[in-house]
Amino acid sequence: MRIVQYRYPAYRSLIPASSVFARSPWSGMEAEFDRLFAAALPPSTNPLFPVDLYEDQANAYVRAELPGVNRDDIHVEMTDGNVSISAVRKTPPVDGQPEQSASFSRTLNIPAEIAADRVTAAYENGVLTVTLPKREEAKPKKITVAVK
Known about the structure:
By secondary structure, this protein is mostly beta strands. Helix content is 8%, strand content 34%.
């Protein structure tokens, strides 16, 4: 993310400030908002897709919305504490136009308590669910307290 310092528009008007036609400090705000959104949003060449992260006592989960993507065009990779999800959405040729495709990718950091050798992924109805099982030593343990 890039931090941008805001500067108020310059007041270089020959008309006195008391005039009805004086420049408002709010003029040009639409252009400033457009500039700020363009700086904050990722470029459209490799758009991100929505991802939900949640966990229970035994597993952590990554849910990614990938509607219109074939199962064969989804790749999930686990390396060095990261889960990388990449997908390609292909549109069939229409009216003599060639086949078009759009690629998506996302890399997420995962906690160290995940057992990487037991990671599974399932794709159903446009939603990819990656299940990240926790190691046994990382799972919460119930301790009974003896009362004397």
